[in-house]
Specification:
Helix 1 crosses helix 9, helix 4 packs parallel to helix 8 and helix 7 packs across helix 8. The protein has nine helices and eight strands. It has a single domain, classed as Rossmann fold, CATH 3.40.50. With 222 residues, the protein is of the alpha/beta class. The strands form two sheets. It has a five-stranded parallel beta sheet with strand order 2-6-1-7-8, with helices on both faces. It has a three-stranded antiparallel beta sheet with strand order 3-4-5.
Length: 222
């Protein structure tokens, strides 16, 4: 029987980075569910749709193909209609689009089977907003990863600056706070810890410390 580890938490908490390292350490497959929503947000943006334009986005789902795959370096990539969009979906604008489209029930249903099928066939560490509460409610280990908005904004700012993007910390912080509110107040699958989730705060911790903390938690419960 495959083992599933669910990691939920707000934007910028380090879920993807930490989960990726933890999966490599434990020999699990890492599934970045947020990237799937970002790909749908990118597709909507390219068509000129607003993130909450249900009348346009719902029919669009029948026209697109979103996949998780691995490149030659064995790194997970996101394919949108066969195009590797991994580098195009990490902007603040696409973050907000992802938050908006994820509030559409039909979008969540569109991706649900894909996510559950991956967990059924493989040992996975899957991160997102509602993995432990909705997508994989029977996951053997559930972790809710958080950090202060200021800490998360600083991490995202440093990441985007390193990529050569012209951004301001104040704008990133504003986006983080806005997305926290949108994610936790949406009607469908709002961001919240599962009742049996282990709460982990990584404010002020470096990547190595955070990874070691989560890997130790996972190993103690496997």
């Amino acid at each position: 029987m495959a083992t599933a580890i669910a990691i939920d938490g707000p934007a910028g908490a380090g879920k993807s980075t930490i989960a990726r390292f933890a999966a490599k350490t434990l020999g699990f497959i890492y599934v970045d569910t947020g990237a799937l929503y970002r790909a749908i947000g990118l597709s909507a943006q390219r068509r000129g749709y607003a993130g909450d334009d249900k009348a346009s986005i719902i029919p669009m789902l029948n026209e697109i193909k979103v996949e998780l795959a691995f490149n030659q370096a064995h790194e997970q990539i996101v394919l949108l209609d066969g195009e590797d969009v991994s580098g195009l979906i990490r902007t603040p604008e696409i973050s907000m689009m992802a938050s908006a489209v994820s509030a559409i029930p039909e979008v969540r249903a569109f991706l649900l089977d894909l996510q559950r099928d991956m967990a059924h066939r493989n040992n996975v560490i899957m991160d997102g907003r509602d993995i432990g509460t909705v997508v994989l409610p029977d996951a053997q280990i559930k972790i809710f990863l958080s950090a202060s908005p200021e800490c998360r904004a600083r991490r995202r700012y440093d990441e985007l600056i390193e990529k050569g993007m012209d951004v301001k910390y104040e704008d990133i912080l504003s986006d983080v706070i806005a997305r926290d509110y949108a994610d936790s107040h949406r009607d469908i699958a709002p961001l919240k810890p599962a009742d049996d989730a282990i709460m982990v705060d990584t404010s002020g911790e470096d990547l190595e410390t955070s990874v070691n903390k989560l890997v130790n938690i996972m190993r103690s419960r496997l």
